[in-house]
Amino acid sequence: MAEVDTARIERAVREILLAIGEDPTRPGLERTPQRVAEAYAEFFWGLHVDPLTHLADSVPIGSSEQGVPATSDAVVLRDLAFRSVCEHHLLPFVGTAHVAYLPGDRVVGLGRIPAVVDTLAARPQLQERLAEEIADALETGLEPKGVLVVLDAQHRCVTTRGARQERSSTITIASRGALAEPAARAEIIHLIGARHD
User: Exactly one of 3, 48, 88, 128 is catalytic; which is it?
Assistant: First the structure.
């Protein structure tokens, strides 16, 4: 897939400025098309990256000292900051991702999970779909026994326009396998919400 076409974005932004009655050549706006193009290249780089590449370096869990296969009950990563852009208005939404999985035979370095979240968030998105795509990537890339993804985000299309609900946030949940079971999901959600004293 082609990279972000920044020159084309610059031309489009000039047209938008003209369409709202502004002069794109006036001081203060003259570099705006370039700035927006650079921002969009940063916002949407994930369109050109397969999130599964981040999970390719998974490693076997291994065996215990008695020769019995070792297991890990759960891997839970809390408070992963993310930002994305809502595909309906091209306005940002920012929030926190919590990701858990029950390993099958393999695990991945902890830095790989935020990379998956960042890659999938760096696309025009819906929060509901983003949670599902993260869960799907982990399920495909790691073949775990279960996956749970919880996203909590504020949407600028809700906080700055229309209803202008400045304090509202949206929570979406995607679960797979054993973590789709209500009791198991509730236990992981409790761990996510737990805080050290």
Answer: 88
